[in-house]
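Deliverable D2.4 — example input (structure tokens):
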């Protein structure tokens, strides 16, 4: 990453019990976006961090989520003004 932004939170600001982590193994590529959309619409979670392998995939996932009216911000190394995206 070029010139990354560091976000530091104090331990009392985010209690560990408030953080949930999920890992879903999906074998076929064409099932990934529909599964993600299903999860986004069924779980009442207000903030997500979704990790993908490439900048292109981040853009693709962000575009698909926005198409289905899931509020999304994409952050990766090729975004010029990352501060504006946050």
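Example output (designed residues):
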């Amino acid at each position: 990453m070029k010139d990354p932004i560091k976000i530091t939170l104090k331990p009392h600001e985010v209690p560990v019990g408030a953080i949930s982590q999920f890992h879903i193994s999906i074998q076929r590529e064409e099932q990934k976006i529909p599964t993600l959309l299903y999860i986004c619409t069924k779980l009442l979670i207000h903030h997500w961090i979704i990790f993908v392998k490439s900048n292109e995939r981040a853009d693709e996932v962000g575009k698909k989520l926005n198409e289905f009216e899931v509020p999304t911000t994409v952050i990766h190394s090729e975004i010029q003004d990352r501060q504006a995206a946050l």
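Residues 8 and 14 are 11 Å apart (CA to CA).
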